[in-house]
């Protein structure tokens, strides 16, 4: 579980995060949504202390990253998996080597143990058939799965993903969403995902945090988002005609069942 208390971040006096408080449960996929520029990436990077917050508290299962020494932060980082845009794979390493990389870097496992763990993870992300391929030889969706595999190989307690579906077709996006859900439930990770993908919102949004201009405008889940009364949220989520019609249909169905 990650608890965020009154998180603020400014850059040279410009307030980007203006005091956000929320809780992200473990074993759940938590989505952060909002217009471009609303502060989603700064929020994620502040939670990770990539950007040092201006003020506030961020508690990782009760441990406040704002109060931690450098060594304690280092220790915490070993419990965190990240999938960031531009967090490119190593082009000259095979799928298996990419996934094994964090084990080489951060563990003292034996060769055999690393091999076993890497194969377990490649099974989880459904890459068993591509272990010896180079990133250039596999599709964008498979590359995303390698990135997910690399992020989970150390059994992280916390998983952060920035736009995991960007650049993927709808089918492959669903595959990635299903995978994030499976991993989160199987390993009980606290998973936080920044997304623009409304399909993800409707399917894996076990918690949804909607940011607007650096503030929490609304929070709920995929069931409550459909019936939410917040005008800004509705305008944002239902800017697609298809979703707008779906919402109207559901609200009518609600009324006719009363
Ligand atoms: N390193 C930085 N220094 C100064 N300002 C920044 C920095 N990073 C982001 N900002 C500003 O913070 C605001 C929020 O940016 P952020 O990248 O978090 O938005 P976002 O919601 O993730 O957008 P998008 O959906 O387009 O990725 C923007 O106005 C941006 O210019």
From TrEMBL:
InterPro entries: AAA+_ATPase (IPR003593), ABC_transporter-like_ATP-bd (IPR003439), ABC_transporter-like_CS (IPR017871), P-loop_NTPase (IPR027417)
Residues covered by the ABC transporter domain: 2-238
Superkingdom of this protein's organism: Bacteria
Pfam families: ABC_tran
Gene Ontology molecular-function annotations: ATP binding; ATP hydrolysis activity
Record keywords: ATP-binding, Nucleotide-binding, Transport
PANTHER family, per database record: INTERMEMBRANE PHOSPHOLIPID TRANSPORT SYSTEM ATP-BINDING PROTEIN MLAF (PTHR43023:SF6), PROTEIN TRIGALACTOSYLDIACYLGLYCEROL 3, CHLOROPLASTIC (PTHR43023)
Protein name in the entry: Phospholipid/cholesterol/gamma-HCH transport system ATP-binding protein
Source species of the chain: Frigoriflavimonas asaccharolytica
């Amino acid at each position: 579980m990650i608890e965020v208390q009154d998180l603020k971040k400014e850059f040279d006096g410009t307030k980007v995060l203006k005091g956000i408080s929320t809780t992200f449960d473990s074993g759940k996929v938590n989505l952060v949504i909002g217009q471009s520029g609303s502060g989603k990436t700064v929020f994620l990077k502040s939670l990770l202390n990539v950007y040092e917050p201006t003020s506030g508290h961020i508690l990782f299962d009760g441990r406040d990253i704002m109060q931690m020494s450098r060594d304690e932060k280092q220790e915490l980082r070993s419990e965190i998996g990240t999938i960031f845009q531009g967090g490119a794979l190593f082009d000259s390493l095979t799928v298996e080597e990419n996934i094994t990389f964090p084990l080489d870097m951060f563990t003292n496992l034996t060769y055999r143990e690393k091999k076993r763990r890497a194969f377990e993870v490649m099974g989880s992300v459904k890459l068993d058939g591509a272990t010896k391929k180079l990133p250039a030889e596999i599709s964008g969706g498979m590359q995303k799965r390698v990135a997910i595999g690399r992020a989970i190989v150390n059994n992280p307690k916390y998983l952060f993903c920035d736009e995991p579906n960007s650049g993927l077709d709808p089918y492959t996006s669903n595959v990635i969403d299903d995978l994030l859900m499976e991993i989160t439930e199987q390993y009980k990770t606290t998973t936080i995902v920044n997304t623009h993908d409304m399909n993800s919102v409707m399917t894996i949004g076990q918690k949804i945090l909607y940011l607007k201009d650096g503030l929490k405008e609304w929070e709920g889940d995929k069931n409550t988002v459909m019936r939410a009364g917040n005008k800004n949220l509705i305008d944002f989520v239902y800017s697609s005609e298809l979703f707008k019609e779906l919402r109207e249909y559901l609200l009518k169905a609600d009324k006719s069942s009363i």
